[in-house]
Design goal:
The protein is α/β, with parallel strands linked by helices. It is built from 15 helices and 10 strands. The longest helix is centred in the last third of the chain and has 19 residues.
Length: about 325
């Protein structure tokens, strides 16, 4: 049984990665429904929380059915992160996660996210301060290092464990790689197989099929897998992996009706959470993923992303169901 603190996650948990503009409550609800064992929010700016910025505060929204749920925070100032931890804990998550992995320029070049991989002593000090300022278990999401010459993750993971984190998720790329090239899981495996490590180690990067999940579990010995991009528009990936791990056989892929129902449910929850205008706008990035692989989909996609009311978008979704249900 894999545990973070006292939270039991099963024998080989599948985690939903925290993804900016993706891992919001509507998307998380679908992933939970389809088998995610532990989910994290989008990352939240510590400075935004301290300033009471509306966008940051709204990202603290979590719901009972999501549990166990972790809220992820990021920032470059230790004192701001300590204050943000207290604000975050008051929102009632099960876990607080620290983002030491985001590679995007506006975050990393200010010393937050993966930027802190250039200052390991500060990373350790910040982590200690966060652990000491909350009763909740603290986890970390990070990368192998800043670049090819600074892949210190084996030592870093040990030092973070020593200051009290209770789980670590490692993306198998450096910051310099961004999302290019293949993720390298060999160092993730070294972290897991370090005899000094006592906390669960989760691997992240490039898992997009049940076969790959089983292969990487067996080859690298991790405690669980964190899934990010493969789940966008395809929340079924969690149960598909679980089924394959249990039986060695594949679940039938979602039908066109399943896809339409999921997109419609996602839209409905987005509108309920953000209001009609914002809900419609924020759903636009998801449609191409829900209907990936459909022939001649461009025209429908244009209708979905330009529809100015929920009724119009739902009408287009029903049109898609009618057009493709005999083929898929």
């Amino acid at each position: 049984m894999v545990k973070i603190g006292s939270i039991e996650l099963g024998d080989f948990p599948l985690l939903l990665a925290p993804m900016e503009d993706v891992s919001d409550p509507p998307f998380r609800a679908l992933c939970k429904e389809h088998g995610a064992d532990l989910m994290y929010t989008e990352f939240i700016s510590s400075e935004g929380l301290i300033r009471d910025a509306a966008k940051s505060m709204q990202k603290l929204d979590i719901f009972e059915y999501e549990r166990p749920i972790g809220i992820q925070i990021f920032g470059s100032e230790i004192e701001s992160m300590r204050k943000a931890t207290e604000i975050t804990a008051a929102a009632g998550p099960d876990i607080i996660d620290i983002n030491y992995g985001c590679p995007v320029k506006k975050v990393a070049c200010k010393g937050a996210g993966a930027g802190i991989l250039q200052d390991i002593p500060k990373m350790v000090s910040m982590t200690r301060e966060i652990v000491n300022s909350t009763h909740l278990p603290v986890t970390v999401k990070t990368r192998l290092g800043w670049d090819e010459d600074t892949k210190y993750i084996v030592e870093v993971a040990e030092r973070l464990q020593d200051v009290g984190i209770q789980g670590i998720s490692i993306h198998g790329r450096t910051r310099k790689q961004m999302y290019k090239g293949d993720a390298d899981w060999t160092l993730i495996s070294e972290v897991k197989n370090n005899p000094r490590m006592r906390i669960p180690v989760f691997g992240n990067g490039d898992i997009d099929t049940p076969e790959k999940a089983v292969e990487y579990r067996d080859r690298y010995g991790v405690d669980g897998i964190m899934i990010g991009r493969a789940s966008i528009g395809y929340p079924w990936v969690f149960n598909e992996i679980k089924h394959f791990m249990a039986t060695g056989t594949h679940l039938a892929p979602p039908t066109i009706s399943d896809r339409v129902d999921a997109a419609g449910k996602h839209l409905s929850m987005a509108v309920r959470w953000k209001g009609e205008h914002l809900g419609l706008v924020e759903m636009r990035r998801h449609y191409a993923n829900y209907f990936k692989g459909l022939p001649h989909f461009k025209e429908y996609r244009m209708q979905l992303v330009t529809g100015e009311s929920v009724d119009l978008v739902n009408a287009t979704l029903e049109e898609i169901r009618g057009m493709f249900q005999d083929q898929y």
